Structures are given as structure tokens and as C-alpha cells.
Known about the structure:
This protein is an all-alpha fold and 138 residues long. Helices cover 75% and strands 0% of the residues.
Amino acid sequence: MSFDLPARTADAVAVLKATSPHTLDAFLKLSEIFESTTLDAHSRETVILTVAERNQCHLCVAMHETKLAALGPAPSAERLDAVRRFTLQVLAASGAVSDAELDAFFSHGYTRQNALEVVLGIGAYTVSTFANRLTRVA
């Protein structure tokens, strides 16, 4: 998608600030907390990008594809695919993933704490993607 990413991002923030500063504040706090989790940066960006793609937030997809690319090559593409699949499974099952799905996630070096951190990322970026789509900035 071709558009001015910095300007579109600034527009999205401005719209939220003007119409619902509480929503903007909640998202900023949640995203700050998510950034401090034990998930590595590549995994965090993969969670965010997975939510953004699923929720069809074109602004977030463009922004987080750029951020993920800026991180450089991932140490393990299989590990990132595992967190992507797990994120989609959590969303599809409203958190009630199977033991087999959890075990598959854990087999890539992720932990129970990481599983809950994925839930945090889903929550934070569901707020963002839904707000962007509702306000028509995405």
C-alpha cells in the first residue's frame, strides 16, 4: 500500500486524541507494557503484525512491517512462525487453545509467561486496530 506512513500515523494519533483521549492513553500504556515483556523484539512485532493483518488495519500492517524489517533478519524464522500461529490460535479460540497448541508453542523455546504476553499484545493491538478502523484512518 502506498501512502505517507508518518503522516498517516500522526493523523491516527490526532484523531484518537481529539475523539477519545482515554482510548489513546490506554493503547499507549498497554503498548509500552507489551514492549517491556520477555518476548524478544522479533516475536513482539510478529504478534502485532499478525493482529494487524487479521484485523485488516493497513496502517498498522505498513508500520509494523517497517519495524520488523528494521530489526534485521530473525534469529529463527520457524520460531516467528510459531508465535504467528499461536497468536492466530489464541484469537480463534478466544484464549482456550489446546494443550497440543501450547506444547507446539513451547517447543520453540517460548514459555507460559510468553503465552500470556501474547495475550497482552493481542489486547493492546486489538484496541489500536479496531480504533483505527472505526475512525477510518486505517
